[in-house]
Amino acid sequence: MSPTTIRLIEPADGAALAGLLSRDRQAYARWLPERPAEFYTPDGQAAVVTSLLASHDQGLAWPGVVVSDDTVIGQVGISSILRGPFQKGFLGYWVSSLHQGRGHTSRAVGLALRIAEDELKLHRLEAHTQLENLASQAILRRHGFRSWGIAHEHFHADGAWRDEVFWERILTRPSGRRPG
Ligand SMILES: CC(C)(COP(=O)(O)OP(=O)(O)OC[C@H]1O[C@@H](n2cnc3c(N)ncnc32)[C@H](O)[C@@H]1OP(=O)(O)O)[C@@H](O)C(=O)NCCC(=O)NCCS
Q1: Domains of the chain
Q2: Which of its termini does the chain have fewer beta carbons within 10 Å around, N or C?
Q3: CA of 156 relative to ligand 1 center, distance in Å
Q4: Contacts of 110 (CB under 8 A, 6+ apart)
Q5: Nearest alpha carbon, ligand 1 atom 40
Q6: Residue 99 has what pLDDT?
Q7: Which parts of the chain register pLDDT below 50?
Q8: How far apart are the C-alpha atoms of 72 and 16, rounded to whole Å?
Q9: What angle do CA 44, 48, 49 make, to 5 degrees?
Q10: Interior angle at CA 114, CA 100 and CA 74, nearest 5
Q11: Which atom of ligand 1 is nearest to the CA of 95?
């Protein structure tokens, strides 16, 4: 089993991410947002990374990459961080189809949970999955997320509006389950 680590995204990651994203552009069209052609280029990804790091500097996000054998294989991140009475963030992730089915995303999500709790001191994480994205749902369940509803026609991908399951994980309770 190849190890999995995550770290904060860096400007130099843009080229690798452009390569992975453009390779899976068709395969992942059903699951990821529609993007302009520029998004899939090294320059486009360099601009995305700059923007993500600006969000991090403002305390609004923790944008990470998934790494295995010293190679970037995907992204995992916490965005839309809200402080005040919420103390919550939104979890997102993808791993290249070249590295699917080997537990990388599951391990990356476990590491992101630790960052959310120990470094960001969040109380709660949220995530969305399309109804048909069973692999993504399995990953969230394994890490103690509970589903709390379905949002109809919530996400536009591959030419149509898709229903999504909404998920939550309370970080201060290890299992994510309510007591009793
Ligand atoms: C979905 C995605 C993140 C999975 O990544 P991965 O690295 O292959 O995932 P892992 O190997 O860590 O875990 C996959 C889990 O799904 C399960 N799984 C896979 N296919 C499944 C299916 N058809 N039905 C049910 N469970 C399934 C696996 O058994 C595993 O669960 P387990 O660890 O409890 O056995 C990856 O395919 C991806 O990036 N897809 C495109 C983008 C995307 O969908 N992102 C998530 C948006 S919410």
Answers
A1: 5-126 (3.40.630.30)
A2: C
A3: 20
A4: 143
A5: 94
A6: 98
A7: 176-180
A8: 7
A9: 115
A10: 25
A11: 39
- CA 159 to ligand 1 center in whole angstroms: 23
Note the pLDDT of residue 180: 31
Question: In this structure, what token pair is assigned to residue 55?
Answer: 């969000």
Best probe residue, ligand 1, of 75, 106, 143, 158 (max atoms within 8 Å of C-beta): 106
DSSP per residue over 75-89, as a string?
A: EEEEEEEE-TTT-EE
User: Across the beta sheet with 160-170, what order do the strands follow?
Assistant: 5-8, 62-68, 71-82, 88-95, 124-130, 160-170, 146-157
- Tokens (6 digits) for 108: 């990356």
Burial category of 134 from C-beta neighbours within 10 Å (exposed 0-12, middle 13-18, buried 19 and up): exposed
